[in-house]
Amino acid sequence: MHASKGDRLLVHGRTVGHGDHMVEIVEVLGTNGEPPFRVRAEDGHETIMWPGPDCVVQHPKSTEPHTIR
User: Are the CB atoms for 48 and 29 separated by under 8 Å?
Assistant: First the structure.
């Protein structure tokens, strides 16, 4: 799993009654974009995380216009 600062992790709920939630990667602590990641939840809580198979990296869409040459 590779990620960059600013990417988001979608963490799927693993038990009944616990839905999916999203966290933002605020720092990549591993080498070459690999875990562990320092993440921030929507409520502001930060933790260090080693994502498992229940997580999906979502890269933000580029806001820079593409130039055609």
Answer: yes
List pLDDT tens digits, range 26-61.
999 999 999 999 999 999 999 999 998 889 999 987
d(C-alpha 67, C-alpha 5), whole Å: 25
> 2-40: b or e for each residue (b if 16 or more CB lie within 10 Å)?
ebeeebbbebeeeeeeeeeeebbbeebeeeeeebebbbe
Question: Residue 39, SS3?
Answer: strand
Q: What's the whole-model pTM score?
A: 0.77
CA distance 8 to 59: 7
> Beta partners for 24?
8, 40
Q: How is residue 58 annotated by DSSP?
A: E
